[in-house]
Every structure is written in C-alpha cells, then in structure tokens.
Amino acid sequence: MAGKRPSSTAVGPSEPTDSPTSTPVPAPSPSSGSTWTSNLSRRSLALILLLYIAALHLTGLYVFTKGFLLTRLTIPAVSPPYNLDHPPAVPPTHSKAVILIIDALRTDFISPYPPTPPSPYHHGVLSLPSELTALDPSRSLIFNAFSDPPTSTMQRIKGITTGSLPTFIDVGANFASTAIDEDSIISQLIAANKTLGFMGDDTWANLFPTSFALSHPYDSFNVEDLHTVDNGVIEHLIPYLQSENASRWDVLIGHFLGVDHVGHRVGPERDTMQAKLEQMDNVLREVVELMDEHTLLVVMGDHGMDSKGNHGGDSELEVAAGTWLYSKGAPLATASGSNGGETYLFPGSTTPIRHIDQIDLVPTLSLLLGIPIPFNNLGSVIPECFAHDPVLLERATRVNAEQIKRYIAEYGDAEIEAALSASWTKAERSAGALESSSAASSSALRQSVEAHREFSQLALRQLRALWAQFSLPHILTGLLILGLSIPVLITLYLGVRNSSVKWDVFARISIETIVMTTVVVPPLPAVVLGVLFQDLGLAAQTFAITAAILSEIALVLPLLLERSLPSLSSLYVERWIGPAILFVHTASFASNSFIMWEDRVVMFLAATIPVVYLVKAMAAPTTDMRLRIGFLCAGSLFITRLVGAITICREEQQPYCRVTFFSGSQPVAPLWGLALALLLAVQVARAVAQFLIPSKSLAGPARSFLGIAWRWILAANAIYWILEFLEAYEGLQPARVPFVKAAKLYLARISYGAILLALPYYWATSGLCISIERGQSQTGEEAPVTVLGFANAYGSTYLLFVLIPFALVHLVTQPMGQVALIGLFVATLLHVEVVDVQRDAILMRRSFANSSEPGAFDSSSVQTALVRPSFTDVVPLALIGFIGFFSTGHQAVLTSIQWKAAFVGFPEVTYPYSPLLVILNTWGPFLLSALSLPLLALWQVSPRPQSTIPVLAHTLQLALAFITYHTGVLFSAALCAAWLRRHLMVWKVFAPRFMLAGVTLLVVDVGVMLAVFVGLGVTSWKVWRTFKCESI
Amino acid sequence: MPARTRPKAQPSGPKTNSSSSVTTPPPPPSLPLREYFALLSYHSALLIASFLFLPRSTKGTRLSQRSSADRPEHPFLTPLTANPLRTMAWHVVGLAVCVTWWGQHLRTWRAGSKTRDDSPASRQKRRRALADRLLETAATTLFGTVILVPVIFAFGAPLDSHFGHTVFLALHLSLLLVWPVIHALGIPSAESAILDRFRLSRLFCQFGAETPLERALVYPAVGTLIGAWIGAAPLPLDWDRPWQSYPLTVTVSSLLGYIVGGYASWAHSALEA
C-alpha cells in the first residue's frame, strides 16, 4: 500500500518534476478512493501527519529516557534524633571528628602495599597512614573505598554525606537549587547540636549552604591553580586544631583540591604530584600532632584518578579511593587491626588491603560519633570498628539493617521489596533467636550479624542496579524509533513537495499505511505479553514500540526502493547549504566543547546563510532586488550578532565569557537594560508596521491590533519587570514594597487577560488586513475598486496571530531576554522578506527564460505563480530559535532554568500554571520560531479569488522540514549522550543537552500543530470568507 | 614592492587586443598550464613560508609559551603562537608581497603575450598602467578589509576585545580574496562597466568560471572562504593548545583552502585540456 506514491502531479504542461513553481489549478476533485480517509479535510490530514510524527517522538523519547536517564526519588524523611527516650544504639567512641578529603586520593597513594614497581612520584610519598598503621594497627585503619561512579566530586560528596548512590536526576521537592535536602550526616550532626566547620572546595558550601557555623569556601573551578585551595585549607585548619580553639567546633571538614588539580593538569607521573603529596603528608603530620584523644581523624579521597590523572568514569583506578581512619584515644579496632572482611588487590600490588564501599563510612561515622544513621543511607557499618565487642557489633549491624529496611519501605519500589523480603525474614529470624536465648551466645550473635549484613549489602546491590545501570535495550530501541523518524520525515517532506497541489492523495495513502501497520500486527504481541504478564502498562508499551517501528519502516521503504539522487547541476549552493548546516549542527554534538559553546556555534551557523545570500545577491535580476537582499541580510546579520552577545555563561565557558544577561539579582540589571527593554517594547510595533506598509497591509484590524493593543501590552510586560527590579531596589522605602508587589501582580494579570482573551478574540473575529479604496471618478461613473493589502492578505493576517504568543513569551521573559526576543522577531521578519525577494528573483529569471521576446515577460504570471519553499528556507528560522534560547539567558544546563518566571502573575507556586510559565520562559523562543513558520509560506502571497492556492501544502512542507531539523538535533544529542554514557562529561554536558533537545522537539511539534491548525486554519478561513479562495 | 613583470618569453598564444572585446568576444587568454602549475607550487610554498618563518623575525623579545605550560608545544610553534597579533602582522606583510607577485602573473597571463614594444614611451606607459593597477588593487583590498571586519564580527568574533586580531584576519582574507582578482582584472571601469561587472558577478556570485584563467581566480577564492569557515571549528575545542588562539586557525585554514583551490583550478583545467 505504501509502495506507491503518486508521482508528481505536475501543474504546468511542460513543468519538469522538480520545478519549484506551481501555478493555480482548479480545485482537485475529491480523491476517488472510497476509504474513510477521503472524508478528511486537508487540514485534518496535515494535523494527523503532524500528530503521527509527534507520537513517534513521544514514544522514542519515552523509551530512550527510560533506559538512559537514571532517576532516583529523594525522600524527605529523616531519622529521629537520639534523646533520653531513644538512646544511641551503640555508645559513641569519639565526640569530635576531623574529616579531611583529599580530592582524587587514590588507594595506592596511601597504601602500605603499592604496586611494583612503585612510582617515585606518588607511591610512598604520603606515608604517614602506613607508618601509623604499622605502629598501632588498632588505632589506624587503611581501606580501599569503592566510590560509585560517576566519580565526580559533587556526586561523591553527596554519597559521603547521605550514604546514598548518585544518579543524574534526584527527583525531589527542591529541583531548583543544588542544596542537598535529604537526610545526611551533616543534618544529623546539626540536629545533635554539633558545631560544624568547613574549609576548602566550595562545592560543600553549595550543597550545604546553611549548615556550617565556620565556613571558608574556595573556588573549585580553576584547575590551573594548584595551591590556593590547599593553602587556604591549611591556613584555617591548623589554628582550629590548637587547643585554645578546640571548643569552637565539634566536626571539621577540610577538602583539599591540589592533588586532583595536579592530576588533571599533568597527571600523577610528575614531580608536581610528588611535591603535592609531600605537602599533604606534612599537613597530616601536623594534624595528627595537634589533635586530641577525643577526636576521630578521617582522611579520604572522594574518588581516584586514572593513569592520566582524570576521573569521572567507572574505571578501576577511578573508583579506588584511599581511606584512612585514625584515632589517638579509643581504639578503632581490635589489636590485630583489620582482619577478615572483603579485600582488594590494587592493580600491580601483591598484597591485598581491606575493601569497603565508600558509603560504608556514613553509618560507621554516625555510630562512632553518636548520631543516628541518615535515613537514606545504604552503606553497611565497617565491622572492624565495633569488633571489640560482639554485642555492640551485632547491635550496630542490626540498627544499620533496620534503617535500610525503613528506607526501602519508604521508597516503595515493589520489585525491590519483593527481592529483599526473604533476606529480611532471615535477618529477623536470627534476631529473634538471639533475643529468645537469654545469654547471648557468640554463634547466635555471629549469625545475626551475618544475616543483617547480608540484607544490607543485598539492598545496596539491588538499588545500585535500579539506579546506576543503563538499560541498553531501551536506549537502542529509543534510538531506533527516533532515528527512523528522520527518514520518515524526509519521505513525507519529499512526498508533499513532489505531489504539489495533490499532496492530499499522498497524505491519505501515508495515513492509511500508518493505520494499517498500526492496527494489524502490533496488537498481537501487545495482547500476548499483556495477558502473559498481567500487565496493562507492558502491553501498551509493546504496542507503542512495535507500532512505531513498523509504521516507520512501512513509510520509509518506498524511499529506499525508488532512490534517485538529485542531479549535481541542481545542487546549487542555496539548496545544499541548509542541509549542510543541519549536518554540521548535529555533528557538533559529538564534542563536549561544541556543546558547551553551542551559543557561539549557532551564531556562526546562522551567519553563514545570510552571508551566502549576500554574495549571491549581486546576481539578482534587478538592482532593487540586489539592494533589498543586501540590506535585509546585513540587517539580520547585525541583529543576530548583537542579540547573540547577550548570554549567561556556562561555568565551563569561563574565563572566556562575560555575563551580559542581567537577571534581576546578580549581576543586577543596569538601568539602561531596563530602559532599553521598555523602549523596544514600545517601539517594536513601528518596526513590525514597516514590514506591512510596503504591501499596504497596515489596514483593517492591523493598525489598532499592532499599534494600540499589542504595543501597550508589550509596554506593560516591560513595566512588570521594571517593578520587579524596583521591588529589590535598595533605595525603595520598605513601606512601599507591598504596593509595588501588588502593582506588579495585577499588571501581569491584566497582561495575561489581554493576551489570552482580548487579542485572540479580536484577531479571530476581525477581518483581513485589507482596506477598500474607491477611486474618485470624475465623471461619476462606476468607480474602480482597489483592494489595498490584497497582495499580502495571507501574510499580514497570520502575522497578527504570531504577535499573540509573542506577547505571552515576552511577558515571562526577563528584561534582557525581552530585548533579545524583540530583536530576533525583527530578524525573523527580515528573513521572511529575504526569502520572498529571492522567490521573486527566481520567478523573474524563469519568466525571462521562458518568454520568447527578450526583455519582456509576462508580469501576471509572476504575480500569481508561487515558488515552492525549500529546506534551506527554514534553517535560519530554526537557528533563530536556538539563538533566542541562549540569548534569553538559558544554557543547556539545569541551573540556568529561570524559576522567577513561575511567579509572573502568581504570588506563590500555583499548579499547573507555574511549571507552564517556566516552560514558556525556557522554550518560548523555540515555540515562537515554530509559530512563525507559516509566514515563510504565506508572506506576500495574494489570494486567488474563486480559486485555490497551495499555501497549506507549502506550510506543511516547511513544517516537516522544520521538524526534521529539530529531530536531527535530538537524534544526534541522544546518540552522542548514549554513546558517550561513560564519558566524564556525560552528566554535565551530554545528558542535559539531550534533555533540552527532547523537550524542544516536543515543544516544536506542538508549536507547528498550533501554527498549522489554528493560525493557518483561521487565516485561511478568513481569506475564504472574503475572497472565496481555498487554501489547499 | 617586487612587482616585477616576468622577463621570460611568453608562450605564443592568440594575439588579441583585449580592448576589442566589445564587438567580438575575445578568445580566452590561454593559461599556460605547466607554467601555472610550477608557479602555483612556488607561490604556495612562499605563502606557507610567509606564515611559518616571517613571524620568527622578531629578535630580542623573550618568547615563551602562552598557556598550559604543562603541555609543551613543539618549540617550532612557540614564536608563532606566543603573540598572534605579531604573527599576523608579519604574515600579512609577507602575504602582500606574495599576492602582488602572483597577481602580476595573473595579469600577464590575462593580457596574453603581446609583441614587446621596448620603446621608452611604451615602457613608460606600461609602468604607469601598472602603478595605477597596483594602486586601485590596494585600495580595493583595503575596502574589502573594511567590509570583511563586520562579516567576521557577524560570525561571532568578540565585539569588545581582540579588535586588532579581527582586523588582521580581515586584511589577510582580503589579500587572498580581493587582491589577485582585482590585480588581474582591474576594477570595472566606466566604459566597460556592464560587461566587466557582469563577468565579476558571474564569477563570484554564481561561481560560473569558464576559462582556465577564470578558474585560477575563482577557485582559490572559494577555497579561501570554505577554508576560513572550517578554520573556526578548532577555536572552541578544549584541547588547550596555544595554536588554537584566534585568529591563527582561521588564517592557516583559509591559506590552505586558497592553495587547494589553486590546485583544484589547475586540475580542472588540465583535465579539460
């Protein structure tokens, strides 16, 4: 069924198949097929095709995300603090602690058994731990700690403090800030009234913004700087350890970054590393010297480093972090030190050392310090630390297991609970046996310890599998669905383009193909699997996946069968530059650098097309055209470059980037920024009017819509943000703040009302942007009637439609972003004009070529003929969407989400409006670019009274091209994120870029549907009402 | 300026006065392909040398690697990357000499071989014509630089810093794009305006080169543009190498594009011949 696409229904008798013009033809008779699709209008056909594409995207995204984006629910519950009624399970051994984190301290750096041959630069340099262990194994314990990947500092700090496993997305209540809102060792220490001091890597200060009474954070970003952080830590740490300051703190946390930075800069095999480790050794000696008997010293690497000194992944050297516990007073282990338990042989070493999970430190430290184990902890107590008393060990292990059991119950994953139930029953039984026997027999104790420990470790394994393992089948299936949707889009694009005015026949065949492939096969496996596993969700999933893949294959097959490459001569630069730019843009996602600098990449790509047009402009047939193309392209280059200069820099872009997006707080919006936003808001209506005046389309509703309603709504939007600025302005009297707040709130609500109710009503009920002029006939006879604005009746009316969503996005965007939006809107219109002039040039050249008499051409054919749009037409528009995203203060990172937008018109978070506003704020530029799309097909297109005009075909063709662009971007982002899923940048760069692309694609799908169904639908209806011209 | 005419004898070609082209289209001035290839190789070598060796001329300043001291670059590169602005300044001087020499060859090829009239009067006349041509070529190249600066800005060059770098890059591109063409063809004068302008627009707006000489003009220009476009790609990469500094990559890449374009034009013409 899908095998036959109607070959070109060429319009003119001698028109070749890929001639880009179509001349008016009478309305085609309804398709002769008697199938159900013949009753559908063309608009419905277009909508169904777009819906199908959106469904493919949704299915593909869902499946891919399920396998790729690891999510974990954060649970706000906390373990209750100890008090008189609820005493500590195990008596604390230490009242104070010094926790020193030496970033990237690999196990072999402190191990007494380094690999052979040892490296002179990092083995045996930091020798204090092994010296002290040799001296007194009961007070000094060295471990190899397994640090869960991703081995990046922030994830590890989260692990070390909460005892949980890191995932990319911790779905919790507080999505906006990086602060840890889960129960952690830090929050438990504070609940126990301990005073915390911190110095070093400022990641801690971001994760625990309010927890540290004594805080000395240092910038962690500058990898070039090997010493500032370390010297700062030493400078503050040593004084605190002096006995006169001992009462000022209970727990000190120091985080050294030097070793990590040396690793990143030069790797471990350099004398720089030796000097760094010597410095660390000296610090530790001084700390050991100064610390008192009640203090527990913990020295640990948050992760290791690979042979080149980098980290982030899951290689053996990266996950091997050295850990050292030391106590001057109470012993930490029995006199024999650590024996028994899991061991680990470092690569190259001959003697194994004790192996723990890094998160095991969390319950151990909690119990040693006498605080409850954090609620989310998944670590198991280190047995050595309690081994001196079997009763204590049993109690510690049991408390630990019970805490994990509480967590599992609270997390509420039925599968995990089922998998653990047997182990828990066993642990409970052994505890029961212990309780029943009056005297604690050592064997019963040992059994209980083993059973509880087994449970804890099984729980960890289960949850690790749930949170930390990509599901490759899901990833591949998702990629397949998304990847196949590109050839599907190309097939549809070519089909609509080549069948021209009879595209509805092609669309009907395609839709029937889709329905047939969806209805016939996919329900079978879905029903079988659903019945087999008694799972409705599984059945639905199977159905969606099989239906998507089968229908895609069915649609794409014809493309493979009748493959014909376009001839080389037709590949002139205007034609291939668009696809080439799409290719470059997608290819750029393979490198983290290009993703980090994507704002500059899209600006570069966006400049390319106008420059090519500029060069080619000199070949346009008339001087007027040359000048117009020249000025329009120069104007859009100028605007996009200036708008592109507005940016909030990603942290990776430092120090090569200066923040120019002034968002209310930091850096404070300068007055000129606010003034500019207001000025442009008031004046942009004039600029838009300039585009309507040449075709005399500033008529009908346009003048009041544009010049009064829209203009003052934009002004109100700008004033809203000025009030927002005023609210935080220091010079404002505090008494006035409530007034400003109220004014701001109501201004936003009035603006909402006008944008969502008044403007759409006015637009839908008013007529076309035309006016009728009756010529003054001197003789008093029948006066000729001129319709002004006729030439752009479609474009001008649709333009008014775009102004409505523009005003909405404008309202929720901060002042600098408003400036950017206005600039880019003008750039969009400039591009639309350029495309129009170029089409005129094509028509004129063709009619020169066709006309027999040189110099004369049939002007009427130029006026009525339409040039088919090309793929390249939509590329600048898509790029404008990207530039808009970046210059409205966004980047492909989660932290750039502007939560402020949630409160425009709402004093507090209100569902579902607040998330919608944030989405509008973030994806508004993409939405606007999708909604502006039909302008390319409609601009300067005059209706053909009593006839048909293929504007719907052209819009659909452009829409498919536009969606192809964004699908290409998404597919590439997804592919690169999946391919590089073990890359150290995946969670910082690739995964956020994929998420951005995913949501963008869905927003674009919705935008295009709105544009075709609502915008173009109403516009066509209005034209039909006035001129009886049908849009096909 | 070493703008010397070639003293060697020209291979015999069609002897046509180019000013008579209004009535009869001139037979295309034949490009001696073998000589073109040899001189092109010489020209290319000179261009590369002007970039690689001229910037080492500065003595007395202590040159040190600009960044990432832990990843030593090849010592050969250090004088080039230590100060891109100075590198560009030296390179542009060398480039100007090279393209003048090259442009003069193109001009002679275009004029075709004429019987040399060694009378002092005609020598004087030729000298004046050459001086005029050089002057207008230089003026057009400067004008091209002025046009190219905003274009480079549009592609994302920093607006608030590195202004000198951008100007030198524009000058470099203008020397590659504008100089040889104007030197060979001249600015369309008032008399021949329409035809010459049409030819320029056919060559450079529609890339419709037809004769070997036209290809020798158009292909290097196209190569320069494509090379410059590609040359921007290494700029954002986080390899942290000194040679990545703006505008060195764009300069080198456009230079290579120019050279590749030159050989492509030779290859095309040779295949056709």
TrEMBL record, chain A:
Residues 1-11 have a biased composition (Polar residues). Its main location: endoplasmic reticulum. The chain crosses the membrane at residues 45-64, 472-494, 514-533, 539-561, 573-595, 601-619, 631-648, 668-693, 705-723, 743-764, 785-812, 818-837, 874-893, 913-939, 951-974, 994-1018. Keywords: Endoplasmic reticulum, Glycoprotein, GPI-anchor biosynthesis, Membrane, Transferase, Transmembrane, Transmembrane helix. Residues 1-37 are annotated as: Disordered. It is a multi-pass membrane protein. Residues 13-22 have a biased composition (Low complexity). GO terms for cellular component: endoplasmic reticulum membrane. GO terms for molecular function: mannose-ethanolamine phosphotransferase activity. The keyword Transferase applies. The keyword Metal-binding does not apply. It comes from the Eukaryota. GO terms for biological process: GPI anchor biosynthetic process. Pathway: Glycolipid biosynthesis; glycosylphosphatidylinositol-anchor biosynthesis. Pfam families: Phosphodiest. It is found in: Endoplasmic reticulum membrane. PANTHER family: GPI ETHANOLAMINE PHOSPHATE TRANSFERASE 3, PHOSPHATIDYLINOSITOL GLYCAN. Belongs to the PIGG/PIGN/PIGO family. PIGO subfamily. This is Mannose-ethanolamine phosphotransferase gpi13. It comes from Saitozyma podzolica.
Automatic annotation (TrEMBL), chain B:
One of its GO terms (biological process) is GPI anchor biosynthetic process. It is found in: Endoplasmic reticulum membrane. It is a multi-pass membrane protein. Residues 1-28 are annotated as: Disordered. GO terms for cellular component: endoplasmic reticulum membrane. Keywords: Endoplasmic reticulum, GPI-anchor biosynthesis, Membrane, Transmembrane, Transmembrane helix. The chain crosses the membrane at residues 134-157, 169-195, 216-237, 243-266. Pathway: Glycolipid biosynthesis; glycosylphosphatidylinositol-anchor biosynthesis. The keyword Lipid biosynthesis does not apply. It comes from the Eukaryota. This is Glycosylphosphatidylinositol (GPI) anchor assembly protein.
